Amino acid sequence: MRISISIFKELIPAAFTALCLALPGSVHAERLKDLASVQGVRQNQLIGYGLVVGLDGSGDQTTQTPFTVQSVISMLQNMGVNLPAGVSLQLKNVAAVVVTTSLPPFAQPGQMLDVTVSSMGNAKSLRGGTLLMTPLKGADGQIYGIAQGNVVVGGVGAAANGSKAQINHLSVGRISGGATVERAVPTALGQGDFVYLELNDTDFSTASRVVETINQRFGAETAAAQDGRVIRVRAPQGSDERVSFLGALQSMNVTPAQVAAKVILNARTGSVVMNQAVTLDSCAISHGNLQVVINTEPVISQPAPLSGGQTVVAQTSQIEIKKEPGQVLFLKGGASLADVVKALNAIGATPQDLLAILQAMKAAGSLRAELEVI
After folding, report:
1. Cross-strand bridge partners of residue 52
2. Which interval of the chain is the signal sequence (predicted)?
């Protein structure tokens, strides 16, 4: 008994509806700036600890967050306010927060940055609060920015008739232009006569193509690959000429090499993502009440007599998946992992079934692709 896949289109469970396939096709040229970055041109992470005030009773519960009280007392003392000994502060409108942002390359003092403000206590919401002046430090402990401003929270909280509703996360907010750069980070565009390009992904073929494209455009021996990721490029000495050169360099179109086959499986949702068509070798797998059999057989196509053609030998495959007696799914043609996944979806396989089957195929050497489970 043979059952077409089309019969099971309406039986595909919701857990598998996020199946995404990137089938091979013509590889298009991409800008070099999308494939590589200039060595040394990078962001730097900044972090700071501060206080958000002016909350509508939604701040930290000071009995459970003593560091909030300590921060407020320290701030008041720095402002010349001394509290009597033994005073217990009951702060409901203050929240201790962590402020984070990224310092972009070539940032100069006075430049404004967006910051993210996150509660680190048990504050219910940061809506309507104001962040007090907070120093932002880098990994070296130096201050590179100062943050302050009104916190904007995108979520909405509401309560009616004893029930509560919350949309989005109320304990995290942003301040647009809330930080001012106080110190610049020196960024050197290369060393001496050279700049270095770093590919986003290590690939010897792509590195070779980038070198070839650059040398065709700017002359022989302009670029040389140091390994599968780093490319050394000879650049002009002057800063203005070097910037113009890098601008022209990053705008060049390069055709990257086809990446290695990779399959990513989300074990919780059953989502499967393939970066290209992944083929399978012959194998037979039994998993619970599921049986997967993949047979690959040669098919010989002979030309007509006296036609002058050549005999062609091709590989065709048949995928047989059984779940119950009398229920068999056949897929003819190339042994494609996409066909196997679709057939398993059609008979209602769970994400755990799919994970076990793919791992068994990988262990048996039938799945010729990198398998990553997230």
Report:
1. 95, 131
2. 1-29
The structure tokens 């700071």 sit at: 48
The answer on 163 and 51 residing in a single domain is: yes
Same domain, 243 and 283: no
pLDDT in tens, 308-349: 555 443 444 555 666 555 444 444 445 677 777 777 777 677
pTM: 0.70
**Coil/strand/helix, residue 256:** coil
327 burial (CB, 10 Å; 0-12 / 13-18 / 19+) is exposed
**Residue 123's domain spans which residues?**
44-181
DSSP notation for 277-305? PPBB-SEEEEETTEEEEEEEEEEEEPPPT
Residues in the chain: 374
Mark whether 289 and 347 lie in a shared domain: yes
Same-domain pairing of 17 and 35: no
pLDDT, one tens digit per residue, over 13-44 is 433 334 444 444 445 788 999 999 999 899 99
**Count of C-beta atoms within a 10 Å radius of residue 367:** 23
What is the number of alpha carbons within 13 Å of residue 252 lying toward its C-beta? Answer: 22
Same domain, 73 and 194: no
Residues 19 and 271 sit within 8 Å (Cβ to Cβ): yes
* 170: Cβ contacts below 8 Å, ≥ 6 apart: 58, 124, 125, 126, 127, 153, 155, 157
Among all chains, which residue has been given the structure tokens 């692709």? 369
Q: Are 174 and 220 contained in the same domain?
A: no
Count: domains in the chain: 3
Residue 41: count of CB within 10 angstroms of its CB: 16
Distance CA 10, CA 266 (A): 22
Are the beta carbons of 319 and 331 closer than 8 angstroms?
A: yes
DSSP 175-223: EEEEEEE-SPPP---SBTTEEEEEESS--HHHHHHHHHHHHHHH-TTSE
Question: 136 near 122, Cβ under 8 Å?
Answer: no
pLDDT in tens, 104-131: 999 999 999 999 999 998 899 999 999 9
